[in-house]
Design a protein that fits this description.
This protein is α/β, with parallel strands linked by helices and about 525 residues long. About 40% of the residues lie in helices and about 20% in strands. Strand 7, helix 7 and strand 8 form a beta-alpha-beta unit. Helix 4 packs across helix 5. The radius of gyration is 26 Å and the shape is globular.
Length: about 525
């Protein structure tokens, strides 16, 4: 295939009439050669005709807006998406697939192929990932988030004119009728699509109801069918319904076999069946993206619960009364900031050393989402002891294999756990108190590091990250920050830019006192 004058495609085919009979802007120029106008519709038809290596015209006349130039794999991903009305994107976590989707959607809007985009995703990435990336890569487009306790406010966003509307899974259930009535969402993007693997859920049924034969649908996940081959069925029914049986039981019989009354195991050919079902698809692992930096930082923002918000502000008010007219010292600032961080993380210690627990289910869910997207093992750094035990217990209830490292684990046991983590399939997750991740320990079996909440020392932060990003690491590393309060957001920024937090604690604490009454992001 040859691109001619950046306007046409020159193809060598056995049967030219197969192309000229269905593409008006084409002509036969030789016994086995055809010249085809290089447009989006023509490229899509060629793709449907199983012509290989058809380039999308996004490569011809798109300026790739934004503050960063796209990596090669991002361009290829955008190109692939523009050629497929229904498609999967299985690029690994941390490869920048959000930007690829934004560029592809922006191009389709520019070509007047779609009018509006509905992005369906977890709450934790609505603002920190999607809205943030839209501002960075498509600042000329309008976007809004349909997330509000009041249903009428969500509907107002749906009925508005924002070109990109971002909504969470549960929110879509609430306003699905308004989405249907609006009728302008020509593209639906589903992020972390494993949330739609079960066809019996109301969530799945709501999404399917919104899809017409003309709707573009792109589903994103870095770990398709990661737990069972049957997990592929719900996704395939949306993107590639003709590629799977009509009923879930039929698909189960293809990919699983029954070994006891209650136990099923994958068939020997399950991987091939799942691969064919989850098509058309594109995938780049982080290891394949040679132009990616070795370490990517990702932020997930989780709203504090009403209970956390109440006690966070109550604690600030009490601290403000105590601080009135007094000089704030670094030790005082550190102690009080620590209490605010504890409330944000889900458990705080009273002056009597008793533990007060808070509802942090949304943060646990965000952690679960990160782990589900991880391609290798995961380190979860939890600064506070009670939080650490709570997180580890919850992960075990989710059927993950988990080990714990904190100050109470003796050196011999600690070495055993580190060796097992490095050399055996289990545990998949290590929940660690950052101070216990001593210098020199190698844990590069993991390629994802999650901070449940920020640490208060740049040195501890850098040393903790170095457990994974060090000599011998063959995978790209993703560092994920979970945040819900203002102080967490500011702490992470200081840690990332290597600002000495001890020198800035007093200023940071004063800023927090001055911000009483402001809402948390």
């Amino acid at each position: 295939m040859q691109i001619v004058a950046n306007k046409a495609l020159r193809l060598k085919v056995r049967n030219p009439e197969k192309i000229t009979s269905v593409i008006p802007c084409s002509k036969q120029i030789g016994t086995h050669e055809v010249l085809v106008r290089w447009g989006l519709e023509e490229a899509q038809v060629l793709k449907n005709l199983k012509i290989k290596n058809v380039p999308s015209p996004i490569l011809q006349n798109y300026d790739w807006p934004g503050i960063y130039k796209p990596f090669a794999h991002q361009k290829i991903t955008s190109e692939f998406l523009t050629l497929h009305r229904r498609a999967f994107c299985f690029n690994s976590q941390g490869t920048g697939k959000t930007a690829s989707v934004i560029w592809a959607a922006d191009y389709l809007i520019k070509q007047k192929k779609i009018r509006r985009v509905l992005v369906v995703c977890p709450v934790s990435v609505m603002g920190s990932a999607w809205q943030h990336d839209l501002f960075r890569f498509a600042m000329h487009r309008t976007c809004d988030i349909a997330h509000n306790p009041r249903r009428e406010q969500r509907i107002k966003v749906i009925r508005g004119n924002a070109e990109f509307v971002i909504i969470n899974y549960e929110g879509l259930d609430i306003v699905s009728d308004a989405v249907l009535d609006d009728g302008r969402f020509d593209l639906i993007v589903v992020d972390e699509a494993n949330a739609y693997k079960n066809i019996s859920t109301q969530r799945w049924k709501t999404l399917v109801k919104l899809i017409t034969p003309y709707t573009w649908v792109w589903m994103l996940t870095g770990t398709p069918a990661s737990q069972e081959p049957t997990d592929a069925y719900g996704l395939a029914r949306i993107i590639n319904p003709s590629g799977v049986p009509k009923f879930a039981g039929g698909f189960r019989d293809l990919v699983m076999r029954k070994v006891t009354r209650f136990k099923w195991v994958p068939n020997f050919n399950a991987t091939d069946i799942v691969f064919n079902a989850l098509q058309p698809a594109i995938r780049f692992s982080k290891e394949e993206c040679l132009d990616l930096p070795d370490v990517m930082h990702v932020t997930r923002t989780i709203q504090l619960t009403k209970q956390q918000e109440k006690y966070y502000n109550l604690m600030l008010h009490q601290q403000l009364i105590v601080a009135a007219g007094e000089e704030i010292t670094a030790p005082t600032a550190a102690a009080n900031l620590s209490k605010l961080l504890q409330i944000s993380a889900g458990a705080a210690y009273t002056d009597g050393k008793e533990v007060v627990e808070f509802d942090c289910s949304s943060r646990l869910q965000a952690l679960h989402e990160v782990i589900e997207e991880a391609s290798h093992k995961v380190l979860v750094f939890v600064p506070f002891t009670h939080n650490l035990m709570m997180v580890a217990d919850w992960l075990k209830k989710q059927k993950y294999t988990v080990d714990i490292i904190n100050g109470a684990v003796n050196p011999r046991k600690r070495t055993e756990i580190f060796n097992r983590f490095q050399t055996t399939p289990n545990p998949r997750i290590l929940v660690i108190q950052p101070q216990a991740a001593s210098h020199g320990v190698t844990l590069h079996a993991a390629n994802v590091v999650v901070y449940w909440s920020p640490v208060m020392s740049v040195e501890t932060y850098l040393q903790a990250n170095a457990r994974v990003h060090r000599a011998g690491q063959v995978n790209k590393v993703t560092v994920v920050h979970l945040q819900g309060s203002r102080v967490e957001s500011k702490m992470y920024k200081m840690l990332q830019t290597k600002v000495d937090t001890h020198q800035r604690l007093v200023d940071l604490y004063k800023e927090e006192l001055e911000g009483i009454g402001e809402t948390h992001e």
